[in-house]
Amino acid sequence: MTDDSPTSLGATLTATVPMVRTLNLEYLETAADRAVLRLPDQPAYHNHLGGPHAGAMFTLAESASGAIVLAAFGDQLSRAVPLPVHAEIDFKKVAKGPVTATATLGRPAVDVIADLDAGHRPEFPVTVEIRREDGAVTGEMRVMWTLRPHK
């Protein structure tokens, strides 16, 4: 990815990942060190409490993790494909209204690329916080990603 602006990367992901379009996710920030996505308040995706469904929040957080991975490692796509290996989410508080997911890399990108350069299949964590508009953390996700070298 040569242009890592939220519009460019968000447009690419929106075009290639149908679930992003389905949930109308908004890309607010995409950089190699941080990605921020927003899930608008949409009654079609509410749960029994009138807030965003757990599946929608999972998709929001996983999508934020994918955005930071592409921003950080998009220049490696010619030799490796990024894949999530494991994900877990903790729901902390009831979410209502729009929610925002902020993803951060848990390992320096240069270290991950060094592992790839050494012929390894690197793994690296991405952490994501989901927040309501009032700033309360409603969920936390941890995703373990890998860069699988092309054969």
Automatic annotation (TrEMBL):
Pfam families: DUF4442. Coiled coil: none annotated. This is DUF4442 domain-containing protein. It comes from Streptomyces litchfieldiae. The lineage of its organism: Bacteria, Bacillati, Actinomycetota, Actinomycetes, Kitasatosporales.
